[in-house]
Automatic annotation (TrEMBL):
It comes from Flavobacterium quisquiliarum. This is DUF6327 family protein. It holds the Pfam family DUF6327.
Length: 84
């Protein structure tokens, strides 16, 4: 980083004011980010996330589940009709 040469105190004051404002902006961004994170970590959001991921998994696995359960159901009905 190259050193900046100032020709007056007004330039120094202006750069210090800019740095102060940038610092405040970054601080406010950090506070906002923290608040959003805090709001997103609620029991309701955690449960909703768990349920949505579980339903997505079941929806994707539904054909495989049916393929493995249907033979058992057919055998059960056949055995029931035979009286076993």
């Amino acid at each position: 980083m190259e050193k900046k040469k100032y020709s007056s105190y007004a330039e120094i004051d202006r750069d210090l004011e800019i740095l102060k404002l940038e610092k405040e902006i970054n601080y406010q961004k950090l506070v906002l980010s923290f608040q959003r994170t805090k709001e997103s970590i609620t029991p309701q959001n955690i449960v909703n996330g768990f349920v949505s991921s579980y339903t997505d998994y079941v929806k994707k696995s539904y054909p495989q589940i049916l393929q493995s359960i249907i033979p058992f159901i057919i055998n059960w009905f056949m055995n029931k009709k035979r009286g076993s």
